[in-house]
Amino acid sequence: MSSYIGHDEAWEQWRRAQSGERMHHGWILSGRRGVGKSAFAKEAARELVAEDGIPQPAGDHPDILYLTHPPRNDTEARKRDDGKPYERARNIKIDQIRRLQQRLNTRPTLGKRRAVIIDPADDMEEPTANALLKSLEEPPQGTFFILVAHRLGRLLPTIRSRCRVLNFPAVDEADMVSILEREAPQASEEMRDAAIAAASGSPGVAISFVKLDLGKVHTIMQQIADKGDPDFTLRGRLAGVMGARPSREKQLAAIELARAVVAGRVARVQQADIPPLVETHAALVRLAAQAPTANFDAGLLVMEVGTLLSSLAASRTAP
Fold it and tell me: Start and end of every AAA+ ATPase domain (predicted)?
């Protein structure tokens, strides 16, 4: 069993279903990015397809089909094939689902069961999701689908209705501190606090934030939210610490960090100051949803985040 914090209940439900007379053919693993859903999916799939008396391979399993974002283009595909870092496409493609469905016309290789993992399933556009729906409605015998979802609400209701949902809870702050002390001992207290604030209970996200070195970004964001930025000085500093060409991962992490800065203020303000916080938080949530697929200019994106944060200070000083 995986050692991830917060997985005990999910394992109990999964194994209870697996030992029953009829295992449900579709499962959604729902929770924040970075709480270990992918690791659970892979381990659960191995348990599902294993049969007594049939040796199981230690590496890739022929009866576990794993779909995720493909390389962005042919150049990136060659990098992947050469074992080099490569840039992924923003969405799982409909062609991947169609190739999967062709594969499902054959029998499993080693035993009677086959597992399909789609990670993350909420990164399918509607035509792709509708193509998958056909297989969920009439699954081949012995085929089980495990859909990893960071944002359950983005899945089609028709897909959700055909699957059982396993929820993966956020990790509490004390456990987050312990995890970071173990996995990222080099992190300063400032960086650790920033990572925990932005991660909202996701160890994987917190560790990624440490690797992205967002401690200074967090400090400047707090200053903007507290003092405002009438002369754009702080927004200029924010752009500077983000870098001239921040990766998409870093851009998305910055939006999440700004959202955490706003959310952390709700309990510490007067009742009259809550509506601007809610409005700014909602704007950041919309920006986070658009950023993975939109071609935002990195510099303008950072300035937009800074402007949203500066509006909080402006709302407090408005007559």
Answer: 23-172
Classify 42 as helix, strand or coil: helix
Crossing angle of the two packed helices 248-263 and 274-290, in degrees rounded to 10: 160
CB neighbour class for 170 (10 Å; exposed up to 12, middle 13-18, buried from 19): middle
- Return the DSSP state at 33: T
**Cα 240 to Cα 144: distance, rounded to the nearest angstrom:** 48
Contacts 24+ apart (CB under 8 A), 74-82: none
49 near 115, Cβ under 8 Å? yes
What tens digit of pLDDT does each residue of 183-201 get?
A: 888 887 877 887 887 788 8
Q: Of 96, 99, 73, 71, give the one whose Cα is nearest residue 85.
A: 71
Name which of 258, 23, 262 is nearest 163 in CA terms: 23
Dump the DSSP string for 113-144. Answer: -EEEEETTGGGB-HHHHHHHHHHHHSPPTTEE
Q: What is the pLDDT of residues 204-229, one digit of tens each?
A: 888 888 888 888 888 899 999 989 99
Structure tokens given for 228: 């405002």
